[in-house]
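Mods, move this if it's the wrong board.
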Amino acid sequence: MTAEARAKNIKVLIFDVDGVLTDGQIFVIPNSEGHGIEAKGFAAHDGLGISLGRLGGLRIGIITKRQSQTVAIRANDLKLEFIYQGQAHKMNAIKDILQKTGYTLDQLAYVGDDIIDLPVMRQCGLSIATANARKEVKSAAHYITPNPGGFGAGRDAIDFILTAQGKLDSAIAAFLDADNPAAAAADISTGKM
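Not the wrong board. Structure tokens:
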């Protein structure tokens, strides 16, 4: 089955975070108490893509091994439906998502970049690797994004799925319609973190 054919069936899209929605770098800045404050960079294109994904009917979330207040803040800003941190075995979170939604593995897409993502990628309906992914991850992928993580890979995944489903143009039109209440509801917040 082609990646495009797989994408037509997708209802849920789950992202890893580090190396997918970020470039994988983790900056630790000491505070006055001697503790570290974690900082990461996120691509604005991915944020707008998440709004388009919602307008196209996708249910979107993240699963990450790390526990990070930075990720929690960004996930809240993006209005993600599924947020799982501290997940060393990501299939546990996938099973929970499927149980909550009633969807099946073939209706779920996952975007990853490193070997921790392989258990999900080997089972989901559409596995997507970022351009910067490890070779083992690219080998398991049905689709590889043209851009690396932190530089629009998330948007690439959303555009690919919505294009395969014939929904990208209508999602863009809905987003650009200033009078469309669905666009305002699907949009990310204004960044007041």
